[in-house]
Design goal:
Residues 42-52 have a biased composition (Low complexity). The chain is α/β, with parallel strands linked by helices and 320 residues long. It is built from 8 helices and 9 strands. Bound molecules: nicotinamide-adenine-dinucleotide (NAD).
Length: 320
């Protein structure tokens, strides 16, 4: 018989900050800094304590794999025994990443807004390695970082963002499914965002595109589960990458890149940790591997609790 676990001790404390008061639960337990460790795309050590190579013999295709979260994930997958096809619209960066990641990485030029190029990238994986086990639809753009009011929204810009962030994902899912359904197995991943969980965290086109992804995942999971194929998405908090640094630099045009990175790293809520590319890579590794063999239709939020609460914003004493 299952015994109820003792409730974790929690104390609610009144915090005063910026002249405002709010209640917060104390003792997140993360102050030791144990959340912040680990490796990154540059190959620093992995302190996850995982044993063995969890993608041994697997073949993965990662869109937007030339930089940022895609590159970090490619590096992590290779470390765990996978052979990785990096599909990216930036050929120069893609070839450079291929060289950096070594012989287990192969770059294919691919603009995810062009279905034929996505189909070709999948074909390349199958032609080179005879199969496709993991398809990570990760390529995405933010669009203009200083959003106009919805009343002034440029529908061309909206379409542009949706074509990459939603159309590109769907093309990737479609062409992966064409290989995985006959194989009777496979794991499809998509990168969403916390901007797809709460309003106000990004420009409207970006946020709307990211809200769409968990819906796509559920819809497609309903069909693919009958074929033994899993599909999930990952919703990260802000992480300093080329895209996010450029977007935030537009908001703080006078700031140095280092300052912009500090701003991004300071956006989190979890004490003693910041969101890093390796956190997404590890989430992707879990979902891609057999450890997640019964996980499908899921949105794995990697945000240090950011989207799970909102504090009551009481007025300051002077107001009362
Ligand atoms: N960095 C963050 O803060 C953050 C947070 C949440 C979600 N995300 C999402 O993570 C994903 C990866 O972004 P990143 O932060 O690593 O940015 P990044 O700029 O480092 O990488 C994005 C990659 O996608 C490629 N790309 C862009 N358009 C493409 C297209 N049409 N076809 C193929 N490749 C294309 C770029 O060339 C680049 O290599 C995106 O979907 C983004 O929305 C990022």
């Amino acid at each position: 018989m299952l015994r109820p676990l003792p409730l974790l001790a929690r104390h609610r404390s009144l915090i005063v900050a910026n002249g405002k008061k709010f209640y917060s639960t104390g003792g997140s337990g993360s102050g030791s800094g144990s959340n912040g460790g680990g490796g990154d795309s540059a190959g620093h050590s992995d302190s996850s304590g995982s044993s063995g190579r969890r993608l041994e013999g697997k073949v993965a295709l990662i869109t937007g794999g030339a930089s940022g979260l895609g590159k970090a994930t490619a590096h992590h997958f290779i470390k765990h025994g996978a052979r990785v096809i990096i599909a990216d619209v930036d050929a120069k960066l893609g070839l450079q990443t291929q060289r950096e990641l070594g012989p287990q990485a192969h770059f294919v030029p691919c603009d995810v807004t062009l279905e034929c190029q996505v189909a070709e990238a999948v074909q390349t994986a199958v032609a080179r390695h005879g199969k496709l086990d993991v398809m990570y639809n990760n390529a995405g753009i933010t669009g203009h970082s200083i959003p106009p009011s919805i009343a002034d929204l440029d529908l061309e810009e909206f379409d542009r963002v949706m074509r990459v962030n939603v159309g590109g994902m769907i093309a990737g899912i479609k062409h992966a499914a064409r290989v995985m359904i006959p194989a009777g197995s496979g794991s499809i991943l998509c990168t969403s965002s916390i901007s797809g969980l709460m309003g106000g965290l990004g420009p409207h086109p970006y946020a709307i595109s990211k809200f769409t992804i968990p819906g796509i995942v559920k819809s497609v999971a309903s069909e693919l589960c009958r074929h033994g194929v899993r599909i999930n998405c990952i919703s990260p908090a802000p992480i300093p990458t080329k895209t996010s640094i450029t977007a935030i630099a537009h908001i703080f045009p006078a700031a140095t890149t280092e300052k912009v990175i500090d701003v991004i790293n300071g956006l989190g809520e979890l004490k003693g940790a910041k969101c890093e590319d390796i956190d997404v890579a590890r989430a992707a590794l879990f979902l891609a591997s057999d450890e997640a063999k019964y996980v499908t239709g899921h949105n794995l939020v990697v945000d240090g609790g950011f989207t799970c609460f909102k504090n009551l914003s009481f007025p300051s004493d002077q107001f009362l």
